[in-house]
Design brief:
Elements (H helix, E strand, L loop, with lengths): L1 H15 L10 E9 L1 H8 L7 H13 L4 E10 L10 H13 L4 E4 L5 H11 L2 E4 H12 L3 H16 L27 H35 L4 E6 L5 H9 L16 E6 L5 E6 L9 H6 L5 H5 L2 E7 L5 H14 L10 E6 L6 H13 L7 E2 L8 H13 L4 E6 L4 H10 L1 E7 L5 E6 L5 H7 L4 E3 L2
Parallel strand pairs: 1-2, 1-3, 3-4, 5-7, 5-8, 8-9, 9-10
Antiparallel strand pairs: 6-7, 11-13, 11-14, 12-13
Helix pairs in contact: 6-7, 7-8
Length: about 475
C-alpha cells in the first residue's frame, strides 16, 4: 500500500517543482514553421498578417527568456501541415543533419504540436522537442512568485500534460534526462497518472476559488474607499512594468525580457489634482497565447475587466506593433471587454526614446489625426517623456461626467477644507482678503450627499 502513495508523492513533487537549471545553456534550434503568404491570406482573410521574421524573432526571445542557448533559428515555409510531423518529410530530414552536426539538445517549434507530431519529431531528430505552448508554460513556471501565480501556472501545466499522456511521462523512464515536463519514452501507468493529475487539478481549482474569493474581498474593500482603478494591459515586453514604476516610484521587476512580469501588482498613485487611484500591473499578452493560460489567469485579469481606465501600452518602436495591438484587442474581447468600453481605454504609445526626432514627430502627428475617439498618448516610460500628458489624460477620463461644485469656506472651517482636499479634486482655489476660501472642486457622484451635508451652500457649476 505504501508504494502507490510514494509514487503519487513523487509525481506530485515532480509536477510542482519545475526543473529550473537543466535548460540553462542547452544548445537549441528555433524553427518557425509558418504558412506561405497565399496560405496565410486563405486562412486569415488577409488581415493582420504577421511578418514571419518578426514571429521568429519573438520565438527566439521566448527561448532566451529561460536561458536557452539559441544556436540558430530557421523559417520553414509551409503549404500544408503534415498530420504526422507537421513539417514535410524532406525538411525533417534536412534538419536532422543540421541537428546532429551541431549537437543540438532541444528544438523549439514555434507552433502548436499534437502529441503524435511531437513524439515523431523527437524520434526523427534524436533530441527533445517543445512547441510554443510548452515554451510559454516553462517561462510562466519560472516567473511565478506568488502562491496564486504558482497555482495558476501549475494548473495550466497539468492541463497540458494530461493531454500528452499518450506520449510519455518523465518520471517513468528518463533515458535522456529532464527538461521541465519533457523527457523520456515511458508508456506505462498512463491511466494511474491521469487520475493523479486530475486529483491534483481538482485540489488546485479549489485553492484558486479561495484565492478568487480573497481577491473579490480586496476589490470590494477598494470600492468602499473608493479609489478608481487603472489597469495596465499590453503585449509582453511593451514596457508596462517600467511605466508602472515611473508612475508609482515602485521597483517592480522591469527588464528587456518577454514575460518579465507574471504576478499582478497594485500601487496607489496621485493624479495631478490630488485624487488617489489604484494602478494595477498585469501579465503581458502574446500572440497565440494558450487557451489554458487565458482561462487560468482569468481571476488575475478580473482587475482588468473591472478597471475604470485601461492603459493599453504599445511598443511603437517595434516593427510589428500593429499586429501586437490586434492580438491584445483579441484577448480583451475574450475577457468581455469590447467596443462599449473603448471610452475607458487609453492607448499609450511607449518607447518614444527608441525613436529619432523625425519618428517622434511623425507619431505625434499620427496620434492627432487618428480617427474619431480619444487620441493616443506618446510617452517614454524610461525617460519620463509624455508622462505628465498621460496623467492628465487619465484624470480627464476618470473625471468625465463627474459633478463640479463651487464651495466657499470661512477661515474657521479648517476641518472641512481638509476633508475636501482628501476626498475631492481641487480644480481652483482663491483666497479673499477677509480670509474666506473659494474652491472649485470635482468629486465622484457617490460623495455628493456628504458634500451637501458638510457644505450646504455648495452649488453645482459647469465643468
Amino acid at each position: 500500500m505504501t508504494e502507490p502513495k510514494n509514487r503519487k508523492g513523487a509525481l506530485a513533487a515532480h509536477l510542482t517543482e519545475p526543473e529550473k537549471t537543466v535548460a540553462s545553456g542547452t544548445a537549441t534550434f528555433v524553427v518557425g514553421p509558418y504558412p506561405a503568404r497565399k496560405a496565410r491570406v486563405r486562412e486569415e482573410g488577409g488581415a493582420n498578417l504577421r511578418d514571419p521574421q518578426a514571429r521568429l524573432d519573438e520565438a527566439v526571445g521566448l527561448a532566451r527568456a529561460i536561458d536557452l542557448d539559441v544556436v540558430e533559428a530557421f523559417i520553414v515555409t509551409l503549404d500544408d501541415v503534415r498530420p504526422s510531423t507537421y513539417l514535410g518529410k524532406g525538411k525533417v530530414e534536412e534538419l536532422t543533419g543540421a541537428i546532429k552536426a551541431s549537437d543540438i539538445g532541444l528544438v523549439v517549434m514555434d507552433c502548436a504540436l499534437s502529441p503524435v507530431q511531437q513524439r515523431n519529431l523527437e524520434r526523427a531528430w534524436g533530441c527533445k522537442v517543445i512547441d510554443r505552448t510548452g515554451l510559454i508554460l516553462e517561462i510562466f513556471g519560472r516567473r511565478a512568485r506568488t502562491r496564486e501565480g504558482a497555482l495558476q501556472v501549475e494548473l495550466a501545466h497539468l492541463a497540458y500534460q494530461k493531454s500528452r499522456l499518450v506520449r510519455s511521462w518523465t518520471h517513468l523512464e528518463r533515458q535522456r534526462g529532464g527538461f521541465g515536463f519533457l523527457g523520456g519514452p515511458g508508456e506505462t501507468q498512463i491511466e494511474a497518472d491521469r487520475r493523479i493529475i486530475q486529483e491534483r487539478m481538482t485540489r488546485i481549482e479549489r485553492d484558486l476559488e479561495q484565492v478568487k474569493r480573497t481577491r473579490s474581498l480586496h476589490r470590494a474593500s477598494r470600492r468602499r474607499v473608493p479609489y478608481p482603478v487603472i489597469a495596465l494591459v499590453g503585449y509582453t515586453n511593451a514596457g508596462k512594468s517600467t511605466l508602472f514604476n515611473r508612475l508609482t516610484t515602485a521597483s517592480v521587476m522591469a527588464e528587456d525580457m518577454l514575460f518579465a512580469t507574471l504576478d499582478p501588482t497594485a500601487r496607489a498613485i496621485t493624479l495631478p489634482h490630488g485624487e488617489k487611484a489604484i494602478l494595477s500591473d498585469t501579465v503581458g499578452f502574446i500572440s497565440d497565447l494558450p487557451t489554458m493560460l487565458v482561462a487560468a489567469f482569468r481571476a488575475t485579469l478580473e482587475d482588468v475587466v473591472e478597471a475604470d481606465v485601461l492603459l493599453h501600452v504599445r511598443d511603437v518602436s517595434h516593427e510589428d506593433t500593429e499586429a501586437q495591438a490586434a492580438d491584445v484587442e483579441t484577448i480583451l474581447r475574450e475577457l468581455g471587454i469590447d467596443e462599449t468600453r473603448q471610452r475607458s481605454l487609453i492607448e499609450v504609445w511607449n518607447k518614444a526614446d527608441l525613436l529619432d526626432e523625425a519618428g517622434r514627430e511623425r507619431l505625434a502627428a499620427l496620434a492627432v489625426r487618428k480617427g474619431e475617439g480619444p487620441q493616443p498618448v506618446l510617452v517614454s516610460a524610461q525617460t519620463g517623456y509624455g508622462i505628465d500628458a498621460l496623467l492628465a489624460e487619465i484624470e480627464a477620463r476618470i473625471a468625465a461626467g463627474r459633478p463640479v461644485y463651487r464651495v466657499i469656506l470661512a477661515p474657521t472651517e479648517g476641518a472641512t477644507l481638509n476633508w475636501l482636499y482628501e476626498e475631492a479634486e481641487i480644480l481652483r482655489r482663491e483666497e479673499g482678503e477677509d480670509g474666506h476660501i473659494a474652491l472649485t472642486i470635482r468629486l465622484s457622484p457617490d460623495k455628493e450627499a456628504r458634500l451637501t451635508r458638510r457644505c450646504p451652500g455648495a452649488r453645482r457649476v459647469a465643468a
